[in-house]
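Sequence, please.
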C-alpha cells in the first residue's frame, strides 16, 4: 500500500488510538526514503500528537528531534507555531528518561525559552515546563522558584487549555505537601466546570492522596472510584494509576491494590524504563504478592538511575520509607 494511503488510514483512526502508531511510523519510513519532506513532517506531527494520549514519549522525542534539525537547517520547512506549541510537551517529557543528562535537559529547555522570546510569545509555558520538570525530578527548590514565575506571567494563545493548567497547579501543591491548596485549586475540575481529554483523569490521583492526607476519607475514596476507571490500562496515564496504588496501600486495601497492579502491569512493562515505569514499580513495591521482589528490584534500579541523573536521592528516599 502506498504510504500516502497509510497516512489517510491513520487520519481515519481516533487520535487516541494506539493503532495509529505503526501506520505513522511506516509513513515516516517510506516518506524519508522518498525524500518527501512535506509528508515526513506531517506524519511526525501526527505521531507526536498521538503519543501525547497513548504514551511512548521516546517516540515523541525522536520525531521532534528530527523536526528541530529540519527547522534549523531548512527555512520554511517546519511551521514555527507548530514547533513552539509542541516544544512545551517535549521539554516537559524529556526528563522522563534517565539516560538524558541534566545538561541536555537544560539545553533543550533554554532553546525553548530562546525561541519563545525570538517570536515574542509569553514565557508562561517556559516557566510552567521548568516547574513540571522540577516535580518530575524531585527538586522542590526548583519547583518553588519557577511556580511563582509561571503564575505571575501573563498567558497568550500559546498557553495550554485551562483544565490542563489547573491540574498542573494541583500537581504542584500536591508535590510540596500543601494538600489543602491542592484541593482548593482542583475545585473547578471537581465541580465539572473544567475538563479536557485527560482531565479530570489526571486530577483524581492528586485529589485521592490529598484528601487522604487531610483525613477526608470519603472524599478520597470518591476520587479513587471516579478516577481509576478513567486511567485503567492507559499507558499515558500510568503515573495516575500508580497514585491510586499508593492510595490503596495507605488505606490498607492490599487486595484491591494488587488487582490494580495486575490490571496495569503489562502496559508498565512496555514503557522501556521511563518515569511512569518508576512511579508504577515504586508504588507497587509495597504490595504483598508473588511479584513483590520483582517490583522492589525494578523500583530500586530505576530509582538509582533517576536519582543519579537528578543529583539527589528523592526516589530512593521514597522507596526507603516503604520498606
Amino acid at each position: 500500500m502506498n504510504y500516502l494511503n497509510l497516512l489517510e488510514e491513520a487520519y481515519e483512526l481516533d487520535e487516541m488510538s494506539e493503532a495509529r502508531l505503526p501506520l505513522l511510523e511506516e509513513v515516516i519510513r517510506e516518506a524519508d526514503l522518498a525524500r518527501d519532506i512535506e509528508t515526513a513532517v506531517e506524519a511526525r506531527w501526527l505521531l507526536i500528537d498521538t503519543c501525547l494520549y497513548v504514551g511512548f514519549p521516546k517516540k515523541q522525542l525522536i520525531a521532534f528531534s528530527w523536526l528541530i534539525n529540519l527547522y534549523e537547517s531548512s527555512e520554511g520547512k517546519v511551521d514555527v507555531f507548530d514547533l513552539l506549541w509542541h516544544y512545551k510537551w517535549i521539554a516537559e517529557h524529556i526528563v522522563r528518561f534517565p539516560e538524558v543528562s541534566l545538561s541536555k535537559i537544560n539545553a533543550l529547555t533554554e532553546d525553548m525559552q530562546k525561541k519563545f522570546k525570538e517570536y515574542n510569545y509569553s514565557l508562561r509555558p517556559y516557566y510552567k515546563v521548568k516547574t513540571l520538570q522540577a516535580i518530575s525530578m524531585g527538586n522542590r527548590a526548583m519547583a518553588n522558584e519557577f511556580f511563582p514565575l509561571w503564575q505571575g506571567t501573563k498567558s497568550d494563545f500559546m498557553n495550554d487549555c485551562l483544565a490542563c493548567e489547573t491540574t498542573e497547579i494541583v500537581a504542584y501543591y500536591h508535590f510540596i505537601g500543601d494538600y489543602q491548596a491542592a484541593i482548593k485549586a482542583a475545585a473547578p475540575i471537581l465541580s465539572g466546570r473544567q475538563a479536557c481529554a485527560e482531565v479530570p483523569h489526571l486530577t483524581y490521583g492528586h485529589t485521592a492522596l490529598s484528601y487522604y492526607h487531610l483525613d477526608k476519607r470519603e472524599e478520597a475514596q470518591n476520587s479513587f472510584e471516579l478516577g481509576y476507571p478513567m486511567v485503567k490500562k492507559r499507558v499515558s496515564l500510568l503515573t495516575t494509576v500508580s497514585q491510586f496504588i499508593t492510595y490503596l496501600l495507605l488505606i490498607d486495601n492490599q487486595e484491591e491494590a494488587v488487582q490494580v497492579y495486575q490490571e496495569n502491569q503489562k502496559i508498565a512493562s512496555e514503557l522501556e524504563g521511563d518515569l511512569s515505569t518508576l512511579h508504577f514499580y515504586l508504588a507497587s513495591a509495597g504490595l504483598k504478592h508473588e511479584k513483590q521482589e520483582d517490583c522492589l528490584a525494578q523500583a530500586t534500579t530505576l530509582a538509582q538511575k533517576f536519582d543519579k541523573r537528578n543529583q539527589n536521592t528523592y526516589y530512593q528516599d521514597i522507596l526507603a520509607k516503604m520498606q
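The mean pLDDT is 96.
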